[in-house]
Amino acid sequence: MHPFTYTRVSDTRAALDAGRRGGRYIAGGTTLVDLMRETVERPESLIDISGLPLREVGVTERGGLRIGALVTMAEAAAHPKVRTLHPVISEALELSASAQLRNMATIGGNIMQRTRCTYFRDVTADCNKRVPGSGCAARQGYNRTHAILGTSDACVATHPSDVAVAFAALEARVHLLGPDGARQVPFADFLLRPGRTPDREQALGQGELITTVEIPALPRPLRSGYLKVRDRQSYEFALTSAAVALHVRGGLIREAKVAAGGVGTVPWKLPAVERHLIGERPSEALWAAAAARAADGARPLQHNRFKAELLKRTVERQLRTVGGTK
C-alpha cells in the first residue's frame, strides 16, 4: 500500500473543500481499501466522510423513497419502509457480500464499487479501465464471468453491484452535492458504459458527493423481487440476476420495471421485456415471451456464451415469482 494522507471531516462544507483539492472520499472502505492494498488504486489523499449526516431513510411527499448515501447495506435492507415499499431493494442487499461487509459498506459506496474483473485487479495485466490505452486482456483471456451487454472494444467488465440492478429497474435518481451546488442524475446516466473511456465509470464531477438515492413514487400495489444466479450459494457475484417490479390492476399489468445484473458493463435495463408485459394478463406464456427479449443485443465472448440463455431463464423465473399466473 502506498503512503497517503488521511482527513476526517464532520460537515459537508469541509468535505467539499477537501474534495475540491483532489482527495478521494471514503466511508465504509470495503472496496477502496482492498484496491489500495492490491496497488490497483493509489490515492494520495483520503477524506473520511463517515461522520456526515447522510444516514436517513424516508418517504418523500409524493410517496417516493430516499436512502442516504451513508446508510449501510444492512440498515437499508432491514428498514421497514424499504422492505414494505420495495422488497426488491432489500432482497438485492441481503444477497450481497457477507453480513460483516453489509454492516460496514454504504449505499453510496456500493453503487460506486469497481469491477471484480480479475484482469483489472492484476496490475501485471493489460486493462484499459486501470491504465487507459493498455488494452483489454479479458477479450482474449478467460472471460466466463464478463459482460455480454454494453461492451466495447476497450472493456467487457461487469458492474458488480446487486442493489444497483434494483435501482436501475426502479428508475432511481442519484442526488449529488459538489462545489457548484446540488444536482440530480437519473440512475441510468450515473453509471457509464465503457465506450472508449472505460476508466471513467460514474457521472461525477471533481469533488462531488453522493448524498441520497431516491426511488420515485410508483403505482400501488407494486410487487417486486430480486433473483441472483451464481456459482455458489453465498458470498459470490452474479452470473446473472433479475430485478422485477410489477403493478397489476384489474387483471392487467399496468407498469413493469425490469433490469438485469451480471451480464452488463452497467446494470442493464430491459425495456423490450417491459414493453412486452404492459397491458397483458399474467400467464406462463407471457413470462416466457417477454423473457425471450432479455438478451437482445448481446455480444457474447468465447467463454460466456451461456449467459444469453441463462439471462432469459433468470428473467422468466423472476417474472413468474413476482407476477404469478392466473
Automatic annotation (TrEMBL):
<dbReference type="InterPro" id="IPR036318">
    <property type="entry name" value="FAD-bd_PCMH-like_sf"/>
</dbReference>
<dbReference type="InterPro" id="IPR016167">
    <property type="entry name" value="FAD-bd_PCMH_sub1"/>
</dbReference>
<dbReference type="InterPro" id="IPR016166">
    <property type="entry name" value="FAD-bd_PCMH"/>
</dbReference>
<protein>
    <submittedName>
        <fullName>Xanthine dehydrogenase family protein subunit M</fullName>
    </submittedName>
</protein>
<dbReference type="Pfam" id="PF00941">
    <property type="entry name" value="FAD_binding_5"/>
</dbReference>
<dbReference type="InterPro" id="IPR036683">
    <property type="entry name" value="CO_DH_flav_C_dom_sf"/>
</dbReference>
<dbReference type="InterPro" id="IPR016169">
    <property type="entry name" value="FAD-bd_PCMH_sub2"/>
</dbReference>
<dbReference type="InterPro" id="IPR005107">
    <property type="entry name" value="CO_DH_flav_C"/>
</dbReference>
<keyword id="KW-0560">Oxidoreductase</keyword>
<dbReference type="Pfam" id="PF03450">
    <property type="entry name" value="CO_deh_flav_C"/>
</dbReference>
<dbReference type="GO" id="GO:0016491">
    <property type="term" value="F:oxidoreductase activity"/>
</dbReference>
<feature type="domain" description="FAD-binding PCMH-type">
    <location>
        <begin position="1"/>
        <end position="220"/>
    </location>
</feature>
<dbReference type="InterPro" id="IPR002346">
    <property type="entry name" value="Mopterin_DH_FAD-bd"/>
</dbReference>
<dbReference type="GO" id="GO:0071949">
    <property type="term" value="F:FAD binding"/>
</dbReference>
<dbReference type="InterPro" id="IPR051312">
    <property type="entry name" value="Diverse_Substr_Oxidored"/>
</dbReference>
